[in-house]
Amino acid sequence: MSGYQGKKNIPRITSDRLLIKGAKIVNDDQSFYADIYMEDGVIKQIGENLIVPGGVKTIDAHGRMLLPGGIDVHTRFQMPDRGMTAADDFYQGTKAALAGGTTMIIDHVVPEPGVSLMSAFEQWREWADGKSCCDYSLHVDITEWHKGIQEEMETLVKDHGVNSFLVYLAYKDIFQLTDAQVYEVFSVIRDLGAIAQVHAENGDIVAEEQRRILEQGITGPEGHVLSHPEEVEAEAVNRAVTVANQTNCPLYVTKVMSKSAADVIAQARKKGTVVYGEPITASLGTDGSHYWSKNWAKAAAFVTSPPLSPDPATPDYLNSLLSCGDLQVTGSAHCPFNTAQRAVGKDDFTLIPEGVNGTEERMSIIWDKCVVTGKMDENQFVAVTSTNAAKIFNLYPRKGRIAVGSDADLVLWDPDVTKIISAKSHNSTVEYNIFEGLEVRGGPLVVISQGKIVLEEGTLHATEGSGRFVARKPFPDYVYKRIKARSRLAELRGVPRGLYDGPVCEVSVTPKTMTPVSSAKTSPAKQPSQPVRNLHQSGFSLSGHTGAQIDDNVPRRNTQRIVAPPGGRANITSLG
Amino acid sequence: MAERRAQRVKAEEELPVYLARPGTADQVPRQKRGGLFCSVEDAFDSKTIDFDALSVGQRGSRTPRTVKREAGQGETGSPAGAESPAGNDAHKVQICSSGGKETLQNLEDEKSDRLLIKGGRIVNDDQSFHADIYMEDGLIKQIGDNLIVPGGVKTIEANGKMVIPGGIDIHTHFQMPYRGTTTVDDFAQGSKAALAGGTTMIVDHVIPEPGSSLLEAYDQWRQWADEKACCDYSLHVDVTHWDDSVKQELDNLIKEKGVNSFQVYMAYKDYYQMSNSELYEVFTFLAERGGIAQIHAENGEIIAKEQGRMLQMGITGPEGHVLSRPEELEAEAVFRAVTIASQTNCPLYVTRVMSKSAADIISQARKKGNVVFGEPITASLGTDGTHYWSKNWAKAASFVTSPPLSPDPTTPDYLNTLLASGDLSVTGSAHCTFSVAQKAIGKDDFTQIPEGVNGVEERMVLIWDKAVTTGKMDENMFVAVTSTNAAKILNLYPRKGRIAVGSDADLVIWDTDAVRTITAKTHNSAAEYNVFEGMELRGAPLVVICQGKIVLEDGNLHVTCGVGRFIPCPPFPDFAYKRIKARKQLAVLRAVPRGMYDGPVSEFSMSRGGTPSASARTSPTKQPVRNLHQSGFSLAGPPTPEDAPIRPPGRRIVVPPGGRSNITSLS
């Protein structure tokens, strides 16, 4: 498969110069055959009969597909949860990612409420810089809201390369923000040019349902899915879309787990809202029937929020929406806990730490469920696993594309290899794999990260700490071109009117006192049309005689733009 | 100018009345093309079928009071055709021709509570048939042909005209206190207007101040209404705050006071608004007691933010009201309410459906099997929100209500269609009128404008004109949406909402051909503005009978204040609760019986952010998991029966694996 032009060369020395011959290069827009030469972790040349230095390591692709390395937009490696830490740290996690053909991850910084965003961010940077084996970037979660947070967000965007923030509509009394706070956060995010991510579940209802279910004596993992019905997810997505529309802020829904939530996103997109949906490996690959498993540990391994839908048709549905573009990117929300950690909630499902695995399986599962079944082609596959993510988070074309000048993060993909997913062979540290026993077709043959071969012939050569932090700039074009155009349009104007100089009712400030002042209650006024006349400088009279009509029919001057023009809004893109 | 008008009038004279083009009165007719209201020409064409455009006759808005009109009538009104309405005097002629009318008036004696309607076509929500009706003591005693009735009975010859059950206006705010003032229509004025429009029962909202007692407020409203109401009434109670004492009061109201519907608010932040958790509790409570949860659906939090933004931008006029309450916020709140109601298995009633998107959510929810009812109001069915941009402040302010009228001019048509198809179930008026002086409280700040529009008098006529004459619905459906459905939801059926032996004698003889123009000059409300000003509507009540007495004939109202009775509404209306009860029986959740987990358990600190202890992070444990569980399944087990979802066959689980998303949700 892979050999060296000069057999005597020692692989490690020249390994930062790499030539791939005869590959079918697959981007999100087209596929073509070419050779590709990379050096210093960057793609230097693409074409045929390349002139390359001697002694370069060469891989002969034999016409196999060469894809841009996957980008896993949602991981939670090493995430602290009540004194525990997610079982996979940045080393284990990124290793698993590379094994699956993913060459970049974006992790979530979760500051405890009360802890500053900056210090949490620094903490995560430190963890990741020390351990990560592939390039990474960070989302920052907003877990509380006050003035200081706003300033920190500004610093993060301007100086630290963060352009996405997650807010929670769930986790009542811990992370949850109110609608008004979400409105403010979104306004700030829009002004900063970042992306608003949302964890969409109605936390109030979930809390009530959890209480009810516990009262009924249901304490096992099935209580988790019973207390997080999919309607509650769809409701929250709908609310988030509404707030995003109002604030003209781009929205990104993490963890789309159910049909109805996906439908809400698809509808919103049809109405013109700038919204992106991220199904995760778990929701694309399996369903929530396992919550009823008699094996507690197995059932608990599926616990995540929003939960997997008990409807077994869900994965298929989400894969279809992913294929047609209604959902755009895929993450894994990889955040596994081992069984002993899960067992914290053995008598109360609300205490089970939440998270499933999926970073390693992501690419293969999507290939198997979508490309093998003919739902999407290889180009769309590249789009949903890599390119769209790079575009949304402003990494394009450095990541997410095979082009001269892009990073040398590549995957040589074998569409025919089959593999049975099992906890015995996976790279995560947890005992359960939620895709246990699933046979998938398609997998990475060679993975190149930063111009180095990290997976070859089934062997991983990951180097701890080699991952770089990739800073992301605000105002990604892919997202903000539309937003900017809309903010220019969205100017509201008042109607210029003469001053109202008629009688005004007196108002008591305390609403309790009942002193009806000058209300016309005593005289069933049939004449009041008289006093109304000439009340207004504009001189319109009430019951439209000739004078009033013309202007009344045309209540606005030509030059004025009004955001919700009479007759607009409902079926066109809303511009508010 | 004047010349042009003259020419136009002349042109119209040559056309039959029902082909006349709109153009003279000031509200209804708007330029459909090229005007400022149309952002793009034809933008709305072929999106919704414009039934109005397909039908003739009702769009004309010529004012019958002008002389030209009278002149034109002489030429155009073909005397034979019943189809061409002959203006105001037509219905007088009609009723005069109905024999026995004179005797009827002469017999103003003690016998007047016995009444016979002969030759009417009785229209219920299920069928129409010809029969005579005899009523006595306010009840319908006999229905049929050749009735045997006592002598000297007052007789109305209906001459084949429609006799329909009196309308029920399920949403009014008469005499509502507002910051020290009161709406200009009190129960006397309001119920008079109701009767004039063919509505013989109203259901008013009791609004206790947050923090005060529900029962006291209820008693207060009862007192006001008992003194003044001219027709039967019933009450909804609004729940404006939530604690244990409110629970007890609700219980009392349901069990002893005859109230079965309670409204909660998702808007009016820091005032009436309730949180999602409170809504959940209220809904749960009502579902147990057999009440109907009514909802004022708007996202109050975002409205508050938007209002602040508008005011900051210097928009203080009534247009700020609609700009700060975009229809999305209404739809969002409806969606949320539907979700909570479906979680709590509580019947939901959405008051004031004002926009297309809110109506769409309701019809979707109904398709999914949710028990939800939508109530469009007269204003949303009859007019739109373009008037908020009127340069006449007082006019613009008179349209202020919440949720606001949609600025999309196709909304009324759309809502009428949904009403006709049954996706929306009942109609109210949300009649809550303020005088211009009262509205002017908010002359410098739109958030201070008291909210409410008129509509109790216009409701029946407007729906007839917009929905029946256009062919969207038939007369039976008309009865359903104006009366029967409301009676069913309130659990008053068949006492109200139906013409049957034993039902209350609340009847309306309906004239399908009468045409009249709505104007504040002639309406019965005390408000100076009418939001339907200048609209010409076809169809009108000819005779209104309330409690077995004639209250409207020949256009004359004979109402008596204080005759209205309070009608108690029993809980658990079948119309809503039959389905709810069946689902309750199904919705039993069961736990999965499992062996005790006896493996290792991580320590964890409940106070978040403690020391990471005993997390298995250091040792990737693959071994210890095996044999952890009594159930004995091994982790990486061969795909044994375990993979099939495990449930003992006898158990029912509410969300069965594979259920939920596309079938009726039963929880």
Automatic annotation (TrEMBL), chain A:
Keywords: Cytoplasm. Residues 65-454 form the Amidohydrolase-related domain. It comes from the Eukaryota. One of its GO terms (molecular function) is hydrolase activity, acting on carbon-nitrogen (but not peptide) bonds, in cyclic amides. Residues 513-576 are annotated as: Disordered. It is found in: Cytoplasm. Residues 513-546 have a biased composition (Polar residues). Belongs to the metallo-dependent hydrolases superfamily. Hydantoinase/dihydropyrimidinase family. This is Dihydropyrimidinase like 2b. It comes from Poecilia formosa (Amazon molly).
Automatic annotation (TrEMBL), chain B:
Residues 55-92, 603-667 are annotated as: Disordered. It comes from the Eukaryota. Residues 604-633 have a biased composition (Polar residues). It holds the Pfam family Amidohydro_1. Residues 638-648 have a biased composition (Pro residues). Keywords: Cell projection, Cytoplasm. Residues 651-660 have a biased composition (Low complexity). It is found in: Cell projection, Growth cone; Cytoplasm. Residues 162-551 form the Amidohydrolase-related domain. One of its GO terms (cellular component) is cytosol. Coiled coil: none annotated. GO terms for molecular function: hydrolase activity, acting on carbon-nitrogen (but not peptide) bonds, in cyclic amides. GO terms for biological process: actin crosslink formation. InterPro entries: Amidohydro-rel, Hydantoinase/dihydroPyrase, Metal-dep_hydrolase_composite, Metal_Hydrolase, Metallo-dep_Hydrolases_sf. Belongs to the metallo-dependent hydrolases superfamily. Hydantoinase/dihydropyrimidinase family. Necessary for signaling by class 3 semaphorins and subsequent remodeling of the cytoskeleton. Plays a role in axon guidance, neuronal growth cone collapse and cell migration. NCBIfam families: D-hydantoinase. This is Dihydropyrimidinase like 3. It comes from Poecilia formosa.
